[in-house]
Amino acid sequence: MQKKYCQLLIVIASLFVIKGTIAQYPLSVTDIDGNVYSTVRIGNQIWMKENLRTTRYLNGDPIQHMSSNEKWKTTKEGARSAYNNDSLLGKQLGFLYNYHAVYNWRGICPWGWHIPSVYEWEQLIQYLDGASGAGAKLKAVEKWNLKHQPAIGAVPFAALPAGFRNAMGFFDNMGSNASFWSASIREDNVAWFFIINQNDPRLIKVSGSTNYGMSCRCIKD
Question: Where do the domains of the chain lie?
Answer without folding.
Answer: 28-220
